[in-house]
Give the backbone structure.
Amino acid sequence: MTDTLYTQLVGLCTGTLLLTSALMVWRHSLLASIRLLSAQGVALAALVAVIGAQENEAELILVSLLILATKGVALPWVLAHQTKATIRTIEESPRLNPTAALLTVTLLTILAYVVVSRLIGLGTSVGSHAAPIGLAMILTGFLLLITRRRARSQLIGFLLLDNGIATVAFLTSGGVPLLLELGVSLDVLLVVLILHVFTGRMRHKFGGTDVDQLRELHD
Amino acid sequence: MEFALWTPLAVPALFAVLGIAVDAAPLRRYYPVVSSAAVLGSGLLLISAVLRHGGATSVGELLRADALSAYMLAVVGAVGLVSTWGGLSGRAESRGRANGIYGALLSLFLAAMSLAVLADSIGLMWAAIEATTIATAFLVGHHRTRRSLEAAWKYVILGSVGVAIALLGIVLIYAASIGTDSPTLSWLALSRSGLGLDRALVTAGGALAVLGFATKAGLAPMHSWLPDAHSQAPAPVSGLMSGVLLSVALYAILRIQTITNAVIGPDFLRVMLSIGGLLSLLVAASLLIRQRDYKRMLAYSSIEHMGLMAIGVAIGPAALPAVLLYVLAHGLIKATLFVLAGRILAVEGTALIGDVRHLLARRPGLAVPWLVGMSALVGFAPFGIFFAEVGIITAGWAAGMGVVVGVALLLLLVIFAALTRLTVSMTMGSPAESEPFTPDRSAHGPRLPIILALAVTATMAFVAEPVGTLLRQAGAVLGGTN
């Protein structure tokens, strides 16, 4: 792979990652968010495959397939596991209006660039140049976790956060060892399944999935 | 001795599978107790190996037990034994599929904590700590009430986000090792000085990892899940979570601290941990004064003790033996008290302190161990917590952190007064003459685990050999001399 092509492909993948994160903040429909999450999973898998092809590492290609299977297919499927008719109607009413939210995403992205350039320097390598995207995704994930009211939207925020951490890992160090990657994927999958079960119980007990209802326990 | 590294993982896993697969086994309610005993047994074997030969037992590059790991494994087993044995449910209640899963998750929880303290790779340690969140999620929500669902939701969201931040930290530490000859996540390799790790990456990675694990350890200001989860979970689960899961997270902080100390020196994390510790003490003091629920009271007391332990970790090597003594003493006492709180809740039907009165006159079988446990918890001699607190405060004074330990001491006094007032209002006095009663001397559950736990905490501080030697060796591991 020529260096120009490699740079362009990394740019394309990280660009898709950032774009999907921003769109997730903008869109309020649950179904759209889940589709964006799936697209982001595919982009992340592609990024890993590109890095793997550049470095000639078969292990990274394997990891990329693993990511495609979990983040691209399995997790979105778990989240959307409900009849399409009901899920289409679910709309989020976040605490921030779309304009303010998108402005915040812009600010967070700038902040990510500032922090990374202070921390490791933006350098000349392609990886370190794109690393701020990962941090921006993590911060956007936090934003979703804080501003969304519905249980499953918070779950999407958590997954965005996790995708961001994976992006940082692949861009700064070419990924963590395979064993750990497997452990991380399994852990995230299980956490999502557990929260999914809790969402079901919440709907049953509280008659809705608005997490603002959770305020019985306090001092 | 290598098999002792596998038994604490394999035996609980085996009993977890058995508990789910064989539905009608008559002894099924004992499975978590047997799992705890296996963990404790392995811990003691590894401790004896360390004391006899020094160094560490290891299997490949995966599992490794130095003095600290072996000690923590024994603590996990001991606290597990007190919680599961003391919280044993009756034969009739332990039937059914839901209870099979409950026992299986308890066993898996024990296996995950054992893996966390035995893993040599900090990545594997991370995965094991995340696995504890997964195993305990349904345990916290076991009662399926609105309140337990709320507690479980907050616990899983905050717990996994916190631990995700720790993962980011570990990723950055790994990125720092990319620049050296052999990229690694092995704690042993990373904690050797002179590796030439990138300072900026290790600083950021260490800060994020400690921040993430501090969420799991219940340090303020990331503590808000703790009182909810610990008060809503069933008694044995609360005992395990408060008594030992918090300390396992503290253990992770200790391991990360050794790596950062080798690269950037101790000052950076010292400031972070001192602030976290003092804030935890402040939060605990302000919320204990007006506490109305005795299970939440125990949960806030855990925040208090974790705060003081964090200050001990901030002080450094001189305070480490005291911190480790603290871990065991607090674990056993807190497990005992949560088990007793579960029994009081079962017989009195209320968790409100205001509704439980004259316990000593009405139910001496429960009130006597509760009083002994509470006096150990607030720090009376001869219990281990007293010596550990004195050890940390004197070490802090000697290390020039007089202001921090001075403020801590002041907050400890406030907490002492608050806990004493609440305990006295629950236990002392006698009912009015117009209400006749017969004293209930039943312990409402197994007595032996409670007696053993209290006896061990009362005597352990006086046993210089082998406890003192072991604690010094475990502290030395973190000093990088082992």
